[in-house]
Write a structure and sequence with these properties.
Length: 261
């Protein structure tokens, strides 16, 4: 019988969630850029009722997390890419809503790109109906992406990726017309073109790359699909938040602020 009252789920201790996240993602031992600062970046309330997930820890996202009464915000790109800087201006505007509202912020960069189940690359591949296979895209000896087999013409694949990421996909047609094996590294993976060529891949699906990567792709014989840095990296934080809901019974919300890049 319905009571007429909303079901209130009990809060979860922040420390329990942090232990789960660190262990699941392998945070302590995973190599990354110094500014990534993976793990807990800002400590908030000890008890978590609601989780937010977002790609970037920008002012707009953090203010939206406060409005949504989020206790824990999961992000792919955290706060400290600029290194040690005074907490003024835009840095203050990011930190103040977290501190004032008791919101904890947890960042997971390359560990979330790379995770074999919850990671951006694996999730994007499965959204495309493909199965992640061998590791690809090396960073300090660790693969942060995957390869996958398929049989599809490159233009049809570009169109299908566009539907999945809900945005434009730019194709550099450097390789064969029919794709049989591709590599996926989300975000700024244009630097992986040579590795894709050396691995004998027909294509590389990533977010973005520098201007010179056009020549790299055309001269090294690899089709490159640029689907947007943001669009290729919404997958991991959403999967991670859904896993926390399954594990701890906590509701979550995706705070979507596309950059268009």
């Amino acid at each position: 019988m319905e009571s007429g009252f909303a079901v209130t789920r009990p809060p979860v201790q922040l420390e329990s969630i942090l232990q789960f996240l660190d262990a699941t993602l392998g945070i302590p031992d995973f190599p990354d850029y110094p500014g990534a600062a993976n793990g807990l970046q800002v400590q908030g309330t000890e008890r978590v009722h609601r989780i937010g997930a977002a790609v970037d820890a920008g002012v707009e996202t953090i203010e939206a997390a406060a409005t949504a009464e989020v206790d824990l915000l999961l992000v792919h790109h955290g706060l400290f890419w600029e290194g040690l800087r005074p907490v003024t201006g835009r840095r203050y505007r990011r930190l103040a809503p977290l501190m004032q509202n008791g919101i904890s912020l947890y960042g997971a960069h390359l560990p979330l790109d790379a995770h074999e189940e919850l990671g951006n690359a694996a999730q994007l591949l499965r959204a495309l109906g493909l199965e992640p296979e061998t590791r690809f895209g090396q960073y300090e000896g660790v693969g942060i992406g995957f390869t996958a087999h398929l049989s599809e013409e490159r233009e049809a694949f570009r169109d299908r990726v566009s539907q999945v990421v809900e945005g434009p996909v730019h194709l550099i047609p450097g390789g064969p017309v029919r794709l049989r094996r591709i590599g996926v590294v989300t975000g700024a993976g244009g630097s992986m073109i040579r590795e894709a060529a050396e691995a004998g891949l027909d294509g590389l699906l990533t977010g973005e790359g520098a201007h010179h990567t056009f020549l790299d792709a055309m001269e090294l014989g690899v089709n490159v699909f640029y689907a947007g840095h943001y669009a290729t990296e919404t997958w991991g934080v959403r999967a991670l938040a859904a896993r926390l809901e399954s594990e701890f019974g906590l509701p979550w919300e995706f705070l979507d602020f596309p950059t268009g890049l």
